Amino acid sequence: MLTLLPTPIGNLADITFRTLQVLAEADILMCEDIRVSKKLISLFKKNPIISEHFCGIFEKKEFISFHSHNEQEFLSNISKDFFNQCNIVFMSDAGMPCVSDPGMSLVAYAIKNKIPYDVLPGASAGISAYCSCGFDTEGFLFAGFLPHKQKDRRERILNLLQGSSRLDQRICVVMYESPHRILNTLEDIALLAPNALLFAIKEMTKIHQKYFIGSSAEVYAQIKGSNISGEWALVLLSDEKAERSLTCAQILQMDIPPKIKAKIVSKLQNEDVKSVYEKILSKGL
Questions:
Q1: Are 137 and 171 in contact (CB under 8 A)?
Q2: With contact defined as beta carbons under 8 Å apart, do 59 and 44 qualify?
């Protein structure tokens, strides 16, 4: 049996009884970082309730490293019987496995090989940030961590804003960012969407949890002069709607001369007008 376990994102009291029970019964612990998982277990041991009622957690167990750099190699070399012989759990460093963390390849492997598995619910920074923002929306797009390079990051932000603006629903975008890049990301958002609403929260569930809210330009100005240490979650909401546009398929179905169709489609696809015109004629459009 394979079980993916959620871990606290900052406050140890957010661990669930189900997670503790499964952890106590586990034989093998697959970990994103073995050092982090062992430290978490050592902290559990200091809790009198956990140490008394879930003492199996502290029995000798096998630890296996499983992370984004070795997951494919590990799964290609392991037998599916490995998961059927004992109780195996996977723990990411913080929060829900598979959400901007390793684990999805494990689930896919289990499904493909008909291995019994379960994913326990638990703390998620993205969902907590969305619930804390107070924005009147009908849902959110989860973007995870943005690219490191400025050009790629700005392109991703624009794509997210344009994608959400094309939906009939009022949707916000949830993102994660590290303290090393938070100012760069906030600067990019303020430049590309200065009037968009932005909720930024750091050190979630911890003693020094702090949030900022306002326009993206305002939030950037506030955070620029503050302590930026800690992991960040951002919720971005823009009410600017994208201009409606036709697809090439829709244009080809329009009742207009083929030459006009060719000129429009060639512009959209960055192709030669003549070659597009010939394709249109050959297809009888």
A1: yes
A2: no
Please give the average per-residue pLDDT across 256-268, as a whole number: 88
Q: Is the pLDDT of residue 243 over 70?
A: no
Q: What angle do CA 54, 57, 60 make, to 5 degrees?
A: 140
* Whole-Å CA distances, 114 to 1, 30, 80, 260: 11, 19, 9, 54
What type of residue sits at position 180? H
On whether both 85 and 100 belong to a single domain, the answer is yes
Residues 74, 144, single domain; the answer is: no
What CA dihedral angle connects 141, 147, 151 and 153, to 10 degrees?
A: 30
The residues facing 198 across adjacent strands are 214, 236
Please check whether residues 225 and 272 belong to one and the same domain: no
- Are 114 and 217 members of one domain? no
pLDDT of residue 57: 97
Q: What pLDDT shows up at residue 272?
A: 87
Domain CATH for 110: 3.40.1010.10
pTM, full prediction: 0.82
Instruction: Based on the fold, state whether residues 200 and 233 are members of the same structural domain.
Output: yes
Q: Is 279 buried (19+), middle (13-18) or exposed (0-12) by CB count in 10 A?
A: middle
Q: Which of 99, 115, 126 is nearest to 201 (CA)?
A: 126
How far, rounded to the nearest angstrom, does the alpha carbon of residue 185 sit from its chain's CA centroid? 16
Residue ranges making up the domain that contains 78: 2-119
CA neighbor of 174 nearest in space, from 209, 198, 206, 150: 198
